[in-house]
Amino acid sequence: MRGPRALWQAWVRRSRTKSPWIVHFDCGGCNGCDIEILDTLMPRFSAERFGVINVGDPRQGDILLVTGPANLRNAAVLRSVYDQMAEPKAVVAVGSCAAHGGVFRGAPNILGGVGELVPVDVFVPGCPPTPERILEGVIAALPLLAEPRTARQATGGPSPMSIVMLEPREEEVVRVPAS
Amino acid sequence: MTRTVVPFGPQHPVLAEPIQLELTLEDEVVVDAIPGLGYVHRGIEAEAERRPYDEDLPLLERVCGICSVAHAVAYAQAVEVLAGVEIPRRARLLRTFWFELTRVHSHLLWLGLAGDAIGFEALFQSCWRVREDVLDLFTATAGNRVIIGVTALGGCRRDIPDTLQPTIRAGLDAVERGLAGIAPFVLGSEAVARRLAGVGVIPRNVALDLGLVGPTARASGVAMDVRRSGYAAHDELPVEPVVETGGDALARTVVRWREIGESMRLCREALDRLHRLPGPLATRVPPVLHGEAISRVEAPRGELFYYVLADGEPHPTRVRVRTPTFANLAAVLSMLPGTQMANVPVALLSIDPCLSCTER
Amino acid sequence: MSLPGLPNLLALAALVAATALAPLSVGLLLGVDRRVTAAMQLRAGPPILQPWYDLTKLATKTSLPVDRLAASLLVAHVVLAAGAVALVLAGGDLIAAVLVMGAARVLFILAAGAVESPYAQLGASRELILLLISEPLLLLVAIAYGGVAGSFSAAAVAAAQAPVLTLPTLGLTLGVLLAIALRKSPFDLATSHHAHQELVKGSTTEMAGFWLALAEVGHWYETAFVLVLIALASLAAPLVGIGLVAATYTVAIVADNTLPRATWRSALWIGWGIGGTAAVIALVTGRLFGAGGL
Ligand code: SF4
Q1: Are residues B129 and B139 in the same domain?
Q2: Residue A177 touches chain C, beta carbons under 8 Å
């Protein structure tokens, strides 16, 4: 028999991991990733079955989905969006740009990867990644929402900078036919 | 009368992209709008001057993830002019096929977002559901859903073999069935029409003065469509511009909706001509070029213009891009004053702004 | 003064439990609602318990600094809303309960408008419009009930013979009220679960975490209030009540999925036009054929 306190805690953990409200911030990407993120909410991928709601207000969000390479103009905005979110929260970097600048790496206005600005928990590679894999990334971040970051560190849970790397799938490797 | 200044964005859910608008309101009516841009500036033009011609192609495709084919084709055409090469007929038809399919997916995407902006969520969902079928066609022909990378300098990188044609035709049929399914909620719906009519009106003379392009201009009665210049396969597949005269958000919706049908027709005709058509996919383009060239295409949002300057080096000396949204943004600023706050998202969306194109 | 007897204590405990459970069952109803809406859009919806998950998560988020005034208004809002529901459940005066609920919602509007954000203020003004539609209707419903039962006490109405059956059009008013409480089309002006627009989410723009959870609970109480009113009118014929809720749902969900969001003007006209007319007809027939004059 577990005490009511333990039951309540289990319920809270469950609720926190089953209600990921996402905040999407485009940090200078090309729209490809952003559209695919919206696509996860559409009938075919039905992200709402995991409790996902796309909220506009960072302060109501749990998971920050960032796309695009951070640039000099939006770095501060990204940082403030992240700071406005309440713990427990997680950051998922969607797309190659968000991981390291992608195709834009080295371009004049590019900082190169959002990891420079906010602690990223999950990287979802791809240019753009398919909606399935964006969802996979969100799901990979769910366990991190059970506890606030500080509690996570104290109890030896997943550390703040743990990275879940999703390998590219076979069908996503584009082969150019030899002419 | 109370004046409020509403910061709109940069992070906000109406568009997927960050744009900032400082709206001054009198009660709920907008009296002034000042945009703040640059949140998605990456410096692509400058970067393109540092990379070889062929490596610029994947970079420029990522100017915009929605109309990436348009950017690729426009850039490739400019380089082909520099090289003085003719691309094979097969490649021209393939380009048109993917280009028009891009238009279908882009317009459906927009229609969904517009539905969302008027609080019609079911329309949003169903448009995007049909769009999935279009993306399936991209996956079947190019292996990727969104940025398909099919264009090459001098032609195309990928082919549509005749064996694939039945699959694609079945896919086009599925898209058409889906379109027929949502048609009653787009043009047939009184409520939608009432919500869109009279929002963000741009009269014909203003459209001409501001130099608007694409569906935004055509909805104001300006019959211009770059496809008439006959690029890609449009010399053998001519298009008549779809023109409306209302000049409001409703007219823009109607124009885009009719263009979807037009593009579906072009896709099918391109497929017909591709059947049993022999020939290479691409012509060789030398790595070092001289001179300057311009190129125009009709992107889903309007005229897309590329200028490439070559100085005999393996990379271009200058790449200049003029995007349709850059031309049309002026329209937003001219139509926002006098608009109800609740209509701002609709008015803003009605030109189908693409910021990552505009800011590059 | 004598100590309350055991039966009284039991009754009190039952009242407290019922008041606490009321919003939770509304949560379940909303869970079903989200499933049905998703199915209408050919999506897979969230679990039925999703509203409970959302609420728990919000309530246990680490708190962010809040506006003191808005916070206390929100607390008072929930207390009053719960009080209004408890008042009806305890068999108290309906008119008083309606007024208490109105006051609760005014507090919410003040809380929403207390912050600087122009979005929140726009949202608050839309909430106000909804209140303007629903409060007179609620009063009319209470008066019509009173006309049938001969008394405004909820206990008397419960004891009377099924007012909904004798006052056919009253069901329409109750349906409109339910649609407003659930913020269904065309009354989805101020808040919506799936909207991606700040304008629509307006009234809760500045709320987050625990405070957003409070606002949510208050909203659940508001819905529970209408549901309790419907139950009260259909005690003699529970199927009528269930049918009414189901019919309202069907109409509202179909409207939600085939129409764009209405402007506040049309919401006002639809609300008063349909709900008000129906209530007045019910009132007049209640007067003519009711059990006792007022
Ligand atoms: S990763 Fe690729 S698709 Fe995504 S935003 Fe960057 S360039 Fe676009």
Answers
A1: yes
A2: no
